[in-house]
Every structure is written in C-alpha cells, then in structure tokens.
Amino acid sequence: MLVTLNDVLKDAQRNHYGVGLFNTINLEMARGVIEAAEELDSPVIIGTAESLTKFTPLKELSWLLRPMAEEASVPVVLHFDHGLTEPKIIEALKLGFSSIMYDCSTFPYEENVERVARMTEFAHMFGATVEGELGHVGANDNPDADVDMYTTPQEAADYAARTGIDALAVAIGTAHGEYREKPVLDLERLAEIRAAVDVPLVLHGGSGLSDEDFRNCIKGGICKVNIYTDINLAAAHAVAAYYNESRKMDRLIPEMVAAVKAATIEKMMIFGSQGKA
User: Fold this and answer.
1) What mean pLDDT do residues 115-143 have?
2) CA dihedral sign of residues 84, 85, 88, 89
3) Is the C or the N end of the chain the one with fewer CB within 10 Å?
4) Mind listing the pLDDT tens digit for each residue in 2-44?
5) Tens-digit pLDDT profile for residues 150-182
6) Which residues share a beta bridge with 23?
7) C-alpha distance from residue 21 to each of 78, 134, 231 (Å)
8) How far apart, in whole angstroms, are the C-alpha atoms of residue 257 and residue 78?
9) 198 an active-site residue?
C-alpha cells in the first residue's frame, strides 16, 4: 500500500527501529526491495534521487514504482530523494510520489529555511510528506570533511519549527558513496539533536556503516536510514558473476532481483523493521 513518511516513521520513532529507504533505479532493484519487505513484513521506502534521473527518467520510473507501491502487501513510501531543483520536485509530486526531500543543505541557513518552508507548504497540499537536511552530509570522494558542517541541536530545533518538515536529515559524520576508511560518528551530537526536536531523524550515507554503527544510530534516535550504494553494488556484482555463464539478459534478471533482495533483507534485520508492517 502506498503511504507517506508519517505513516511509517512515527511508529519507528515510538518503538525505536529504523525504516530503510532503498533507492531503486530499475525494475529489478525495485522487485528485490519490495520482495524483501513483503517477506519480512516490514515497512519500506523506495524511490530515486534527482542525481539518478539521468540514468532512469523520473516519469518512466514512476510508471514502475507507484503501481508496485500501491499493490504491495506492506506499507511502501514512494520518496523523491535529494531533490535539488523545484521543477523536478514538483514533477515528482505530480507523478504521485508520496514524499519528497528538498535538499537545500548547501545554501546559507536562512535561505535553506525559506526554501524548504515554501516547498513544505506546497507538498503538503498534495498530501505528501517532506524531508529537509540541516548541516551537510558530504561525499566520500571529498576527503576534507568539516565538523562545522555538522548539524547543531539549536539550529535543528529552530529549523524543524520554522519549516514544518516531517523528517530531518542530520549530519553527524556519515558521507555518501563507498567509505575509504571507517567513519567516526558523533553519537553524542545525535542524542542532543534527538532531545531538541520532535520530528523523526534521518541518516544519509548509510551504505558501508557497520552493524554496530546502524544500531547505535537507531538507538540514538534515527528512524529512517538511506541505502543505495550497497544494493547498487549487489546488483552489479550479480551481473558480473553470472554474465559469462549466461550472456543473456533474461537469465541475469532473476540474479539481480535475488541479490538486491538479500542485501535488503540484511539491512532490514539490522534496522529492526521486520514484523513492523
């Protein structure tokens, strides 16, 4: 069934587990994620990010993902992740995405607040939920991470109140992409942010963290965990492993689905979302 972030994250917040967002850029990845969720009776969030629409156009992907979400036996949020431009976010809302993220984290604070507050009011008219980001989750290809870019509890409280967002992505030491070395997470900062705001908290840059990292972050207040690199690599490795054996796309499809499903089940078990649908 198609739902919003509020339908899954509020329960996760009350009962201290995490719900995974698994960005899916084709049918095989989407099938693997939803099959995993149905097998584990877990809520799930699927979608894509604006940067990924150069590989799979948003309109075409919506033709796959929205019907799959509607027909699933578990709650499925259809989320547009890391929306960077308002026209693309509006397109996602018109295509039936039930949730959007407007990423203005690289803008000055007041501009971030103003832009996200305006978009939140607009998205709520569609019945969609909104995620904002405060502080900035960097990329692993940029080694110069700056603690000054981390989220502060004081700004988090102000930001959540003034924007009206439904979920807040925080920067506590994670980064997007594959980690070249073990990240150091600021769990004390996370606890302070959790105490300062009421909205569910989101962890970006989840792929590559240890099981202990995930569990500590969820214990500290994270309700939504973003995953892309791990399932993307699982699909790619499946293709590489079976290509020489089959050399046929139809034979590769079930291998991709199975690999993504297995990787997704592994994460859902760590997040504790099994049986929570």
Assistant:
1) 85
2) positive
3) N
4) 999 999 999 999 999 999 999 999 999 999 999 999 999 999 9
5) 999 999 999 999 999 999 999 998 875 554 556
6) 47
7) 9, 18, 11
8) 19
9) no
Rounded CA-CA distance 53/231 in Å is: 17
Closest CA to 225 of 150, 170, 149: 170
What count of other Cβ atoms lies within 10 Å of the Cβ of residue 202?
25
Which tokens hold the place of 194? 């959790």
Measured distance CA(213)–CA(229) in Å, rounded: 17
**The pair of three-digit structure tokens given for residue 1, joined into one six-digit string:** 């069934």
pTM of the model as a whole: 0.92
Give the helix ranges, DSSP H, for the chain.
5-15, 27-40, 58-71, 86-94, 109-125, 153-163, 187-196, 211-219, 229-246, 249-271
Percent of the chain's residues with pLDDT above 90 = 83
Active-site entry in 81, 166, 213, 230: 81
Beta bridge partners of 101: 131
